[in-house]
Amino acid sequence: MQPITQSVDCAHEGTERRSDVGPSEAVFRTLLDAVPDAMVIVGQDRRIVLVNAEAEKLFGYGRGELLGQPVEVLVPERHRIAWGAASLSGLRRDGTEFAAEIRLSATATPDGTLAIASVRDVTERDRTRNEALANLNHDLRSPLNAIMGFAGLMYSGKLGPLSASHKEYLGDILNNANELLQCINDAVGLGVPPAKS
């Protein structure tokens, strides 16, 4: 079997077998193309040595255009700081960016260590999650603000006199409501951009 890095220059269209690609290589490429995530394999020189069909679709490049290119062509400029760091964005051929989940691993081969990046476009997942968090934020804040408002009015005595035990209970309600509000703020702050006015 030829080492992968010696045969990646051969154009590979679909899963047809070529005379210059051995049976093991053809099976490997077929399996790689069956993976539902974009797979990008990079050599120690940080150049792309192999990609699957999903990587071609996701990034908008043909296989032949990517082979031999520095992996940085797939990463926006602001994320090119450290080799090995998982970027949170991918860069398509047309210059558009997308939210990406990137998982890195390495494997030793006779030609040296190769880095394997599994890339998944998570734009839709992130959008859906952010919308759900924004809705949850509103759905929790509205009744909580009403509870805090009425409890605050009662606690202050503006709605009439209170017994000491009732004032203590209202104090507990307000303290717990403030803690819940802080939890909501913390949770929403992790995943939701500020609401648009």
Describe the structure concisely for a colleague:
With 197 residues, this protein is of the alpha+beta class.
Structure description:
The protein has 197 residues and is an alpha+beta fold. The chain folds into two domains: 4-121, PAS domain (Beta-Lactamase, 2-Layer Sandwich); 125-191. The protein contains six helices and five strands, in the order ααββααβββαα. The protein has helices spanning 4-7, 23-34, 53-59, 63-66, 123-156, 164-191, and strands at residues 38-42, 48-51, 89-91, 97-109, 112-121. It has a five-stranded antiparallel beta sheet with strand order 2-1-5-4-3. It is rod-shaped. The termini are far apart.
Write the layout of secondary structure elements.
Elements: H1 4-7, H2 23-34, E1 38-42, E2 48-51, H3 53-59, H4 63-66, E3 89-91, E4 97-109, E5 112-121, H5 123-156, H6 164-191
Antiparallel strand pairs: 1-2, 1-5, 3-4, 4-5
